[in-house]
Design a protein that fits this description.
three-stranded antiparallel β-sheet, alpha+beta, Beta-Lactamase, six-stranded antiparallel β-sheet, globular
């Protein structure tokens, strides 16, 4: 790959990671590049429709082609369409927003989200990408991988600056025992969000999450609404058992160590 192409990809990644439109000077300063170099790269990216000017200003956001690439990647996971009815059921039963996360390399990627029924709910962004060990969704997947794969993940995490400790190991064991991983309370809430693994041949390929403060700890599986949530998840898993091809990861043939989606 040429040096100019590498610079353009760095700039595209920087624009993609930003939550606001960026100008040439800001990009140049952040990436230690000459403004003229950034301008030429943005011009090339703009002609490819990978970036576009924000409301005809001198600042840039992702273009339509970048959105299409993201949608194209998501569409390759057939589990997405299969999961939507179950996400809606979970949202109705819990009152909170729900999401589908799939494994891509050593990351979890949110590829679907359904808004909750409660008066106040969050709106998780589709496309959100995190290392498996960094979120409750990823831990629900990681907990149901083989010990050999967990060991590989730990080595990868250490090499890429992601934290791992005995605490994380204990959380995986607890998630495996209870069939659910819990997130951290947010915004002063005492309740925690929950993530349920979707397994094919005992190995997790995805996770359904309830993205609101629904649990204060690991409940009895037979108790109250938790039992209803488990039943919804088990119905989706039953499809995975009878039609595993529909749940296949289209990128499973790639070495997970070679996939880089996010930097710590």
């Amino acid at each position: 790959m040429s040096s100019s192409a590498k610079r353009a990809l760095r700039i595209l990644e920087f624009v993609s990671d930003s939550d606001q439109p960026l100008g040439v000077t800001e990009i140049a300063r952040s990436l230690s590049l000459a403004p003229a170099t950034v301008f030429r790269s943005l011009d090339a990216l703009s002609r490819a429709d990978l970036v576009s000017r924000y409301q005809s200003s001198s600042r840039y956001v992702l273009g339509a082609a970048a959105d299409w690439l993201c949608q194209s990647l998501v569409a390759r996971f057939r589990i997405r369409e299969l999961s939507l009815p179950y996400l809606r059921q979970l949202a109705s039963a819990s009152g909170e927003s729900t999401s589908l996360h799939v494994r891509l390399g050593w990351y979890s990627v949110r590829i679907a989200s359904v808004p909750g029924m409660a008066e106040v709910t969050n709106a998780p962004p589709v496309g959100d990408t995190r290392a498996l060990g960094d979120t409750y969704a990823g831990k629900a997947i990681l907990a149901f991988l083989s010990n050999a794969e967990i060991t590989r993940y730990r080595a990868w995490a250490a090499a890429h600056g992601f934290q791992w400790s005995e605490k994380e190991g204990g959380e995986l064991r607890t998630a495996r025992k209870n069939g659910v991983a819990l997130g951290k309370p947010e915004f002063g809430e005492t309740g925690m969000p929950a993530a349920f693994p979707i397994r094919v041949r005992a190995a997790a390929v995805a996770a359904l999450t309830i993205d609101g403060p629904v649990l204060n700890g690991f409940p009895d599986p037979a108790s109250g609404p938790f039992s209803d949530w488990l039943q919804i998840v088990s119905h989706l898993e039953s499809l995975a058992h009878t039609q595993p091809a529909l749940f296949e990861n289209p990128f499973a043939h790639l070495d997970p160590d070679t996939i880089v989606l996010e930097r710590p």
